[in-house]
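Running this now, will post back.
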Amino acid sequence: MKNVKSANYWQVDHEVRNIFGVKGITVLPSPRAWEKFGWTRKWFEKKPKEGYFIWVKKQVDFPLATCITIATPKISQNLNNLLVIEKGIKAKAIVTCNAAENKLCGKHRAKGKLILKDNVSLEYNHFHKWGEKDFVSLDYEFILGKNSQLLYTYQNLFPPENLQLKTTIYSNENSSSKLNFIINGLNSNIKIQDIIFLKEKSAQGIARLRLVGRENSRIEAISKIFALAPSKGHLDCRGLLLDRTAKISLIPEIVCQNKDAQITHEASIGKISEEELTYLRMRGLSEEEAIDLIVSGFLNI
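Update: finished.
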């Protein structure tokens, strides 16, 4: 990551391999930020053992980049991450978490708070790639200031044996969030919970889920929107079953506490039709190639 033009943080197991900030962006290990900046304790709650702290105080034209890797068998990470973006800044983040090998049986736990102050725009791309015996638990909170915008995409095409994913959005006046979850289940137990709180007037929130159930996968997704003020929200939850041993459960929930709010949802679970397969195979694709093409189109949000 040293040759990447960005403010970046790279950790392998428990060791910080590279950390690089630029003028206007502070990047530190979370324990160091706790010691150096007393105000961070409001967000960390208790002193973190590991993780990263990124404080964006100035506009830059390159992305923030973090990479967290498991490389040792049976390692157990417990990260506390904090990203703070000051008023009026437009930022992009590329976040990668992965296992260096397939059967490390590692544990990756991460709690994160992302603070977008007023008039902030953040594009946050979150990519995961794990080994088939890993355990992964994520709990992320996004706090959106007035007029702020969030585009969040979580993509995991190589799932661990167990994945627990919780994402919570707190939307203040005239802020907007668009959440995309793209997950491939294979020999895995996956539990997803995304919650959007539309707290103040003119807040908007959209969550889109695209979930694929392959062999021996269990996917449970609970999506919620709470409208506490005149606001707009929508849930779009879709599952695609590819194997008889797979199971997908979609539970959309909308709660409206303001008569001027507009909240909607849709949910569907289906399978690949024989007509689609036949059409593609008649054009020279093998059955496997045809399935891959259909799945690719389904996951493209």
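The chain has one domain: 7-299. More later if anyone needs it.
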